[in-house]
Amino acid sequence: MTINMGPQHPATHGVLRLVLELDGEVIVKVVPHIGHLHRGVEKLAESKTYHQVIPLTDRLDYTNAMGNNLGYVLAVEKLLGIDVPKRAQYLRVMMTELQRIAAHLIWLGTHALDIGAMTLLFYNFREREDILRIFEEVSGGRLTPTYMRIGGVSKDLPDGVEEEIKAFVEAFPGHMKEYETLLTKNVIWLKRTKGVGIISKEDAINWGMTGPSLRGSGVKYDVRKAFPYSGYEEFDFDIPIGSVGDVYDRYIVRLREMEWSNAIVEQALEKLPKGPILSDNPWVALPPKDNVLTDIDALIRQFKIASEGFHPPKGEVYVGVEASKGELGYYLVSDGSNRPLRMRIRPPSFLNLSALPKMVEGSLIADVISAIGSIDIVLGEIDR
Amino acid sequence: MAEINLAVKKLQEKFPASVLEVKTFRDEVNVTVQKGDIFEICKFLYSDPDLQYQMLTDLCGVDYFPTQPRFEVVYLLYSMKNNERLRLKAKVGDGEAILSVESIWKAADWLEREVYDLFGIHFVNHPDLRRILLWDGYEGHPLRKDFPVEGPDFDKPFVPEV
Questions:
Q1: What is the CATH number of the domain that holds A177?
Q2: Closest residue by Cα to residue B106 from A245, A4, A359
Q3: Can you give the residue ranges of every domain in chain B?
Q4: Which residues of A touch B (CB under 8 A)?
Q5: N or C: which end of chain B has fewer CB within 10 A?
Q6: According to the 3-state scheme, what is the secondary structure of B35-65?
Q7: The complex's ipTM?
Q8: Is domain B6-124 given the CATH code 3.30.460.80 in the classification?
């Protein structure tokens, strides 16, 4: 029998359509159909200046906007060969890690909801709201903050936000305990996740999986450690890994990752250096707004950068960052003009999803739900 | 140029005629190779015990229209053993095909389908080469440079025949 699951199905996390071929309740074949959310971001980027692409990146993986921003601005900065002030780097790390916690909270809530544990969703959204409120105060946006700029970040922390972040960081380990009490040793949860959707180490690498989904299979690969960026080498954190590669391992890996993210935010708060938040390179970074209103040179610069942009040297760069779903890569090709000749986004969810048939073929139809939840896909990023 | 990358050295020894150009930009190594040997080269990089490029991080196309040959297929490989990346590039002309590397890395399955979908480059030996992001029956390949961003019928809804 053939069953069509999606594209409008609450457990497919967006608009994913799966065609399942069944033998009784056992899955013989899975064919994913994607592309329902295709907006042509890569094509659009080719007709925009480098600054104008930043808002587009927010909308890829809409649960991880800060991480998407970061990957893109790092790629452009590498292409230009410019440095970023220390304070901006730390602010970037802090925001990205908060965003990682928020993204994992959505994952945890929806994943648990799919499997039948409804309570958790409300707890998760309660904490996520705290993070989004911090984002709103810092950048003005909740879901799509567009916080990063080429050469730094758009705004410094407003008064009182540091205390708010501190309060969140202190309260979060307690919340983690609440989540774990509900799930980690829950018999129903264990029965639905242990030994389900297994993928071996070798297979996971071969299918190009990255992020927590790869680490669940026991591969210690994290871009933050392998190719440190934005000052991650100065932070003290560990990479949690699983052993079997089943849904439960991926669950545990993400929980531990949230704790480490929390620790990184705490360290960033402690060590946050003083100084500028934007590069002073006059060709790239927008001048401070106060100067624009009083200084004719700054006004000209603002106009020039906002309308024409800048011309990076001819060449191509790839920057990978550890987004909440895995390795998010930006491959930029410049022909020396003020627009990218090509912007390729390497979406982690795309490759993680392509391994789904490998995980679930031969198992029961109910396991598809937990397997999809465990690889944490976001269709905005897969379809671009 | 700084020290020569081990992989590049090995490639130049093993495939002297095939390595066309080696370029380093911002510490990233780019190797342009002959299109016809791409499968053999990938297989070598994958299985050589000193290199072990076991992960295909990314595979994408770039359109350099109006330069001829207009396309480049770009392979970004990652070796966990050496913690190193290597970028391979192969030039492909309009209407030409290139060998699929799907049998080496399964990751190439969807990535090659995407390149086929958006650029119209054919991959020989790919088990299931069909469109992935756009629907079957779509005309044209949007990431080609001669494909317009906005067309005369851009706001017409697409209604498939049932």
A1: 1.10.645.10
A2: A359
A3: 6-124
A4: 34-35, 38, 40, 42-44, 47, 78-79, 81, 203, 205-208, 219, 221, 226-227, 315-318, 320, 327, 329, 331, 333, 341-342, 344, 346, 350-351, 354-355, 358, 383-384
A5: C
A6: HHHHHHHHHHHHHCCCCCCCEEEEEEEEECC
A7: 0.85
A8: yes
